[in-house]
Amino acid sequence: MTAKARRLTATIAVLTLIVCGWSGFVAYVDQLSRSAQAAPPQFQFQIPAGWTDVTHDASWRDIASALSKPFAKDAELLVLASEAKDVSSSAPLFLAVRVKQPLDLEETLSRAKTGAAGAAFSSSSAERVQIDGAPAVRVIGTPLSIGAPLTFLVYYVQGGLGGAAILIYMAGSEEFPRYQSLFEASAQAMEGAAALPWYVQAKLEVSRYEGLIVLILCLLGLALQMLKQDRDLEGMLTPEQQAELDAFQKQDAGLGGLSQSIRSPRRP
User: Fold this and answer.
1) pLDDT digits (tens, 9 = 90+) for 24-53
2) Which domain CATH number covers 184?
3) Residue 22 falls within a domain, yes or no?
């Protein structure tokens, strides 16, 4: 076997170990996730002081649905409260919704900071925080799909394997600074948040490198093809020819690739 073939064989072995390790880890995490009980989290929210709970008021439902859609699709409305007694799309609002799947907080934070495609808002502030001892992301900004001059405060709160909560506070842009401390106090009083198990969090972290895994698989296929071609070439040579080729390659390497320079002379 030539030196080139040996290098390719070693490369293939390393790439195979990486891919096998990744596949084994993913299978292990999936098994743990299936065996764990993923009951819906039982969240408890504190309505801003002095506000009215209008969760069961049908006249507010359409407004709540329109305002929450940019932040969470297919979410379950848990709490809806307003300072105003009459229905109004410009009234300060508090919505709490539950999503069925855990959140990828790192991706959420990245989208909020960079304004990536698919982001629901133009944010002026985005940071990691803690709510009820669990990781969360706090965002202040302006919804992109809502024409009214609103400013919002949104908390994305992890709720364990059973889902997550999204707390949405909205007020007119001019009025928002007056309500901000009230909104933040309400969010910090939330209960029922929970961090993800370590193995799910690890899978989320590793999944960011899926593109690299695909590249490794492509390189593995290319290396296998090159090794096959090299072995086919070796099979076409007699032992005497192979010995002469090996001797020539060693001599050429000692001369610093002189034969390559002769085959491809530089143009004046």
Assistant:
1) 766 666 665 555 555 677 899 999 988 989
2) 3.40.1000.10
3) yes
